[in-house]
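Continuing from the previous page...

OK, I double-checked the sequence for Zn-dependent hydrolase against my notes and this is the correct one:
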Amino acid sequence: MSPLEQRLQYPLGDTLPVPGESLELADGVRWIRMGLPFQLDHINLWLLRDQFEGREGWTVVDCCISREEAQAQWERIFETQLQGLPIVRVIVTHMHPDHVGLAWWLCERWNAPLWISATDYNAARLASQSTTGFGGPAAADFFASHGLTDPDAVEKIKARTGYYPSMVPQVPRQFRRLQGGDTVSIGGLDWSCISGFGHAPEHIALHCGELGLLISGDMLLPRISTNISVHDIEPESNPLRLFLESIDKFRALPEETLVLPSHGKPFRGLHERVRQLHEHHEERLQEVIAACKAAPQSAADVLPVLFKRKLDLHQTTFAMGESIAHLHALWYDGLLSRRRDADGVWRFTAT
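Thanks. Re-ran it with the corrected sequence; updated structure tokens here:
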């Protein structure tokens, strides 16, 4: 455990849910953990005991990617963990594949409505039908304009035309909109919606004051920093500032809140973790400034500054988006200037 993690508290220790089963965290709140075929090898999902439109049952929060292994785990959960009751509602925190991938199947399987922010619903629907932002020629050209010119990497990104649809083949045809500031009644308890930006278009976290719980989605993770990326569909964006402003909203919640993250273990130390994330990104920004003072830098040039380990292609695409995000944060703050060189690559220099 890192020194930063030691400042957090893990009430359940190393206890994890058994695959295909769930673990009770509070009355009517159950934790599911499913595997993912990536370096980030799992996602946490949540079952909330509910009564919705006159039906007793459960609300699911997040779904896992669309694949047979996840469906099989869900089927086992349906058989053993629901006390004979149905899924009555599906809530998705945001549009990334590990969160929304199986929403279509769960909603069809149980005739249950999807609740999600409108921005993320439409982003998921678009991405499931195209290559926008996740691969294909436009993404390859965008990363090339920021210095990723390795021919093999560029060709592989161009070829990733089915990346998002392979994990999110479709989304439900209808949805109920969630917005920051909304209150959702789940099982007779009020859950407040807290919007977050920078990681996804309009991420929704859920806080229940009576239970002292925060379903933080990807906005607040205990061990890793959330990916914050610039994509080709919004090439001039400033997501890092949006993210840091968003996590400051959690400072209004009690410090003893039990945080239920999408990756890692439930933890306490909410305010401490917000402070750690601010410090982490400030350190990275200072390293980027120092590099840009030494010589003009592209986002590809900055990769070894921000990431000390060797990256595979999957990791490199996320890392490139994050590298651009850090450069853009400094550029918008007036600490860097940029120019496009003769090769068409954006390079940033300290002002």
